[in-house]
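Bestrophin homolog, pasting as requested.
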Amino acid sequence: GFLTREERRRLEGLRSPYNKFWVPCAWFGALAGQARREGRVRDDCALKLLMEELNRFRAHCSLLFHYDWISVPLVYTQVVTIAVYTFFLTCLIGRQFLDPAQGYAGHELDLGVPVFTLLQFPPYVGWLKV
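Structure tokens follow.
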């Protein structure tokens, strides 16, 4: 609904190996210049503001295109996965209480499973999968 049928036909007719997000921006720039010459845009300051907003929009489109174009290397996801699982394996061993049969002072309660570590596990793994 943003383009006329003629504009859509012309946009689809352009052959480019890259994304064509910049073409409507170029059309807008040309139309803004024509509107200024015809007096629809009152002064040069208004035209300057229009063009600055267009450039900001185009920069954001370009940034979005770069995020899509350059993917995160697979090694980063592998390193993060190994780090998360290693952290929790270490926590399962390191956060267990001491054996109360040994008679350590202040350690009368022995829980075989570190409950809070297990409660931390689902959010971290869920975050990792996202």
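Note for the archive: The chain is about 65% helix and 0% strand.
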